[in-house]
Specification:
Pfam families: Acetyltransf_1 (PF00583). This is GNAT family N-acetyltransferase. Residues 27-174 form the N-acetyltransferase domain. It is a single chain. The protein is of the alpha+beta class. It has a single domain (8-173), classed as Gcn5-related N-acetyltransferase (GNAT) (Aminopeptidase), CATH 3.40.630. The chain has helices at 37-48, 54-57, 111-125, 140-148, 160-173; strands spanning 8-12, 27-31, 69-74, 77-85, 94-102, 130-135, 152-154. The longest helix has 15 residues, at 111-125. The protein is globular, with a radius of gyration of 16 Å.
Length: 174
């Protein structure tokens, strides 16, 4: 049995020059409230094509910060989410972009880009200077957004260069 491949890592060297956040008409940004657990799990299930429990990835244990869990809403429904988290070992000046997902019915509106950008803005508001994230090889649409926002692959393991070359080639072919 092959072990599960490690996560790919991307870094953004500065949050200083982020583009402005301009949501499309009819869309709004909000932070997490306890009633949002089901919406979060639904968006993540569709985005990651598997069940992920809120309690397993975010939880309500310290350091739980509901203001770091963001949603874009449309007509009262959550359609995208991202978390402006912190990760041990990342550094005090580094934010951790976590669990980004958007519903496919809103493609063409740049909702995935906007929720990612909103999380980066939140990190900057909190005094973070840079950001990092972990992703999977198959999340091509997300990786395309991350590269547009200035994230660059970080090679942490020997096989990462080969995997990144394959991912970037697939993105460039589209």
């Amino acid at each position: 049995m092959n072990p599960k491949p490690s996560k790919l890592v991307m870094t953004l060297d500065t949050l200083a020059d982020l583009p402005p956040l301009a949501l499309p008409e009819g869309y709004s940004l909000k932070s997490f409230e306890s009633m949002d657990v089901t919406a979060w799990e639904s968006i993540i299930r569709i985005s990651f094509a598997r069940e992920i429990a809120f309690g397993d990835k975010i939880g309500f244990e310290a350091p739980f910060h509901p203001d770091k869990i963001l949603f874009i809403r449309h007509q009262g429904l959550a359609v995208a989410t991202a978390v402006a988290w912190e990760k041990e070992g990342c550094g005090d000046d580094c934010g951790y972009l976590h669990m980004v997902g958007a519903l496919p019915g809103h493609s063409g509106k740049r909702i995935g880009y906007m929720i990612t950008l909103a999380a980066l803005h939140r990190m900057r508001e909190e005094g973070k200077k840079k950001a990092m994230l972990e992703t999977d090889d198959f999340r091509l649409a997300a990786i395309r957004i991350y590269t547009k926002l200035g994230f660059r692959p970080t090679l942490l393991e020997p096989e990462h260069e080969r995997r990144w070359n394959a991912v970037l080639a697939r993105i460039n072919d589209r």
